[in-house]
From TrEMBL:
GO terms for molecular function: 2 iron, 2 sulfur cluster binding; dioxygenase activity; metal ion binding; monooxygenase activity; oxidoreductase activity, acting on paired donors, with incorporation or reduction of molecular oxygen. It holds the Pfam family Rieske. CDD domains: Rieske_RO_ferredoxin (cd03528). It comes from Acidithrix ferrooxidans. This is 3-phenylpropionate/cinnamic acid dioxygenase ferredoxin subunit. Residues 5-102 form the Rieske domain. The gene is hcaC. Keywords: 2Fe-2S, Dioxygenase, Iron, Iron-sulfur, Metal-binding, Oxidoreductase. PROSITE patterns: RIESKE. PANTHER family: 3-PHENYLPROPIONATE_CINNAMIC ACID DIOXYGENASE FERREDOXIN SUBUNIT (PTHR21496:SF23), FERREDOXIN-RELATED (PTHR21496).
């Protein structure tokens, strides 16, 4: 079963920034790039640091871990630079009636 959970209105999420949310025991970084939204596990796979505190690279669709500099694809969750070598989870997000929803599988 897949549960979709409302996270708030789209206006609550700043363009070009990441924001941490807790959903059903999952810590998730929500990233808004223009009108597109991405949801990625908010824990670096190299060390236990919040990815939501890192820099968003809009052109590359990547999120950087602020501690050691690894970047992760917002689309696949795979690391694109070292030292991280393991992917982090990604989640489906969609907008409906002005609200942002995330799906936990």
């Amino acid at each position: 079963m897949h549960d979709s959970i409302a996270l708030g209105t789209v206006e609550e999420f700043e363009v070009g920034k990441a924001r941490s949310v807790e959903v059903g025991g999952h810590r998730i970084a929500i990233v808004r790039i223009g009108d597109d939204f991405y949801a990625i596990g908010d824990k670096c796979s190299h060390a236990d640091y919040a990815l939501s505190e890192g820099e968003v690279y809009s052109q590359e669709k990547e999120l950087e871990c602020w501690k050691h500099g690894s970047t992760f694809s917002l689309v696949t969750g795979k690391p694109t630079t070292l030292p991280a070598t393991r992917a982090v989870p990604v989640y489906d997000v969609h907008v409906e009636d002005g609200k942002l929803w995330v799906t936990i599988k």
